[in-house]
Amino acid sequence: MLENVRSELAAAIAAELSDLGVADAAVSLDVPPRRQLGDLAWAGALPLAKALRRPPRVIAEAVASRLGVRISTAAPDHPLAFVEPEVAVEGPGFVNFRLRRGPALAALLRPPTRRGEGGRGHDRLARDGEGVAGAETSEPGFTPGERGGRGGASAAEALGGGPQRSPKVVVEHTNINPNKAAHIGHLRNAVLGDVLVRCLRRLGRRVEVQNYVDDTGVQVADVVVGFLFLPEARLLEAVAPFWPEVAEGEESVQVRALRALASRDGAGTLVAAELGAGDFDDLCWELYPRVTRWYDELPEATAHRAEVLHALEGGFPAGFTLDAAVQRLASPDPRPRTPDPEALARLAAAIAEANLRCHLITMGRLAVAYDVLPHESDILHRGFWARAFELLKEADAIRLESEGKNSGCWVMSLAESAEFAGMADADKILLRSNGTVTYTGKDIAYQLWKLGLLRDADGALHDFGYREFARFAAPGPAAAVTYGAGDRALVRTTDDRDDRLPGADFGGGERVYNVIDVRQSYPQKVVKEAIRVLGHGDAAENSIHFAYEMVALTPAAVKRLEAAQGLDFGLSAEDMAKPFVEMSGRRGIGVKADALLATLVAEAERAVAGRQGEGPGLAAADLAARARAIAVGALRYQMARQGRNRVLAFDFDEALAFEGDTGPYLQYSAVRARKIFDKLADKGLAGTLEGDAAAVAEVAVPDDLWDLVVTAARTGEMVAKAVASLEFSLLAGHARDFAQMFHKLYHEHPVLHAEDEATRALRRAVFRLFSRTIDEILESLLGIPVPSEM
RNA sequence: GCGCCCGUAGCUCAGUUUGGAUAGAGCGUCAGACUCCGGAUCUGAAGGUCGCGCGUUCGAAUCGCGCCGGGCGCACCA
User: Fold this and answer.
1) Element (H, E) at A465
2) CB of A724 within 7 Å of some strand B atom
3) Distance between CA A227 and CA A232 in Å, rounded?
4) Distance A660 CA to B26 C1' (A)
5) Which residues of chain A between 443 and 482 are close to nucleic strand B, CB under 7 A?
6) Distance between CA atoms of A378 and A385, rounded to whole angstroms?
7) A1 CA vs B23 C1’ separation (Å)
8) Environment class of residue A108 by beta-carbon count within 10 Å: exposed (0-12), middle (13-18) or buried (19+)?
């Protein structure tokens, strides 16, 4: 509603200006800093003063008086009819507008009508009540013509689920190396990505979520090395706490560990779904730093890494089971000296898959879900790079160096791009002299596929094969995603194009967001540049690196970790004096996502139980569900509220706070609002939405309640602004301001004990709007569940 | 060296992309809140050279230039 009024008002001002001799003025309406000044403001008279050679107030007054006429003669169903005809000129030349509060509130309350019902004007208002149509105006758009038309069709279709042909947005996020447990840095990535996805969907976009799995990189290779080559005592130390059966036996520790891995995989117990239980990714979290420490002590041990890496690139035949692989690795002698490459690749795949499943469960707890899991091994084996290499050569985008330090490499020259101007060495190696492709090379191929631009010579799409990876269910907008029981398929890629899955239609995004931390800016620019030099300028512009700063630890957090684990990370006094300490999976320095969540759940349980008072105790299941919701709310809000360009220095006390500027504060406002309606219903005072809307239409709304109404109405604007700038701190701040206003009003405007029925109807109407809006902001947009009670 | 980011209250941060009216929260500190829809709440107080300087502008935390301090990039790693 607000957005339509805004755009119509802007159009009206532009029309008046053109009568005054100013053609094509760009008119934008602001919200005044204080509500007493009005609901909307136009500051454009000030900059016009010079051009028109008249004082700004004179211009403002001319526009204001003419607008007054236009507004008072507007048709009743026109958006301008929601504006008070008295237009004020204040200060040096601000033009301030007020809304007709009663009618505006009534319009906001009424559920939006579907397209095709009702009159045209009414329909426009209704759709905008959802924040969709108006929201589009400030998003930097798809290039015109790509999007299937502004307004009508696309917005309305999206609300109804959308036709398959509307442009797709691909969002890639999470992308955790499948060699250890997820930590809080990955959490920031996943939450930012997930909130982006939710906001895009709110704006009516068709969105596909990809979680890229780097299953053939050195990180996975290092864990394979850990299982096969790490000195026995060290391997045992990492594995035995998780797999007691490895502690004893005749065979070597390596073989015992491999057998345990295979038998647990066969029994389906390799991955546990219990929060707090030591899982496979926790085992790897212990094992991986031991491997890197071993390399530091014994540099020649890195030869094992190279050997494994090479084996991973070769892959393994379809149908080769983990049991068979372990058999080959275990049989000949206690410690295999020359392992079978295929068996190594099969083992690596099992390790990567188990870690991936752990990550999916971790993210599922936080209501983060995906559509497809592209695997690096499939990019390799499906020949994505080979095809991209041909395209790059055809376009003369790369060249083979015959001398200098890059001799023998295929490089892409960046010297001609303005983006890379001033660089000492403006060449990026894509293919090494030993014939292997770099990560950036693979990423270019992957990005081409994401954009639907990886095509064979005959024009056919060069695509993956697909198979189902898991089934999952997510009962509500912000409810935990649970694997194993639902009817929605999570798909992974395969390297066999004959693996067809009905309805599988992935990649080919009109726009692609890559959620990756800011340290990857350089390679991301290279990828974008490659798309551009291949002749896809528009696609390059629609390849967006959603960059955010890293998560680090405060020195206090590091000390707490060391104390809790009885470890010494060996950081220098200089390091500990810095404002933050970088996490390092290699060194085992970090806060695991699940461990943090478990701590939060425990704290929340204590808090919930503590406020139960005397009455009958809360059922354990209720307690757990509430605590889980609160923990997730605290965590997601902490990740979303901070601007993306600022390093997030993680601190336990801050993370465990439930009061003030926190997720639970927001959740409490939503619970409180619902509670009002529960109580009203008990007393038979609930009223109806239509009744309240009708009652409110003719009534005077006081300033403080009106503030809450306007804030609710601005939600769509905030979503659009957040997406346009990729700053979700804006949305988090909006939610906080909104909840804060409600908490204040809650004390001053009792509903149940209102003085009279008219007062009650008004308060009920305003709080109804609040309740509906905060639920939507939290659950649908921020992914924060609202518990039934707290 | 080159590039990007950060610097706002004692602390942690919004606000900077589109310049606008009296720069906002939370934590912490101090003082308070009705037998009343839940105190994870609310009210009040104290707390600011928006890192520094110059410039543009009717108007600068916001734009430009130059400094200072801090972080991160600039691999035949991923």
Assistant:
1) strand A465-473
2) yes
3) 9
4) 5
5) none
6) 10
7) 30
8) buried
The answer to whether A646 CB is within 7 Å of strand B is: yes
Nucleotides of B under 7 A from a protein CB: 1-7, 12-18, 20-22, 24-28, 34, 36-38, 40-43, 58-59, 70-78
Q: Gap from A643 CA to B71 C1', in Å?
A: 15
Residues A651-687: tens digit of each pLDDT: 999 999 999 999 999 999 999 999 999 999 999 999 9
Q: Is the dihedral of CA A86, A89, A95, A99 positive or negative?
A: negative
- What is the DSSP code (8-state) at residue A116? T
* Sign for the pseudo-dihedral over CA of A620, A621, A622, A627: positive
- Whether A427 and A409 have beta carbons less than 8 Å apart is answered as no
**SS3 state at A210:** strand
Given a contact cutoff of 8 angstroms between Cβ atoms, the answer to whether A99 and A82 are in contact is yes
* Residue type present at position A711: T
Bridge partners, residue A494, by sequence: A465
pLDDT of residue A273: 85
A window 169-188: Cβ near strand B (< 7 A): 177
Question: How long is the CA A731 to C1' B26 vector, in angstroms?
Answer: 17
pLDDT (0 to 100) of residue A23: 80
CB A652 within 8 A of CB A386: no
In this prediction the ipTM stands at: 0.97
Verify if strand B has an atom below 7 Å from the CB of A671.
yes
Q: How far is the CA of A352 from the C1' of B65 (A)?
A: 52
* pLDDT grade for A162, boundaries at 50, 70 and 90: very low
DSSP codes joined into one string, A536-590:
-HHHHHTEEEEEEPPEEE-HHHHHHHHHHHT------HHHHHSS-EE-BTTTTBS
- Checking each nucleotide's C1' against the CA of A48, the nearest proves to be B58
More confident residue, A118 or A299: A299
- pTM higher than the cut 0.95: no
Spanning CA of A136 to C1' of B24, the rounded length in angstroms is 28
Closest CA to A224 of A110, A328, A312: A312
Residue with the two structure tokens 């009708």: A694
Q: Does residue A643 reach within 7 angstroms of strand B, measured from its CB?
A: yes
A158 phi/psi in degrees, rounded to 5 = -60, -40
Contacts of A36 (CB under 8 A, 6+ apart): A703
Q: In Å, what is the separation between the CA of A742 and the C1' of B29?
A: 26
More confident residue, A126 or A641: A641
**Predicted confidence (pLDDT) per residue in A674-725, tens digit:** 999 999 999 999 999 999 999 999 899 999 999 999 999 999 999 999 999 9
Burial A12-40 (b: 16+ CB within 10 A, else e): bbbebbeeeebeebebebebbeeeebbbb
Nucleotide at minimal C1' distance from the A407 CA: B76
The contacts of residue A156 (CB under 8 Å, 6+ apart) are A115, A127
Q: Is A484 left (phi over 0), alpha (psi -120 to 50) or beta?
A: left
The 10 Å Cβ neighbour count of residue A111 is 12
Coil, strand, or helix at residue A172? strand
d(CA A13, CA A737): 30
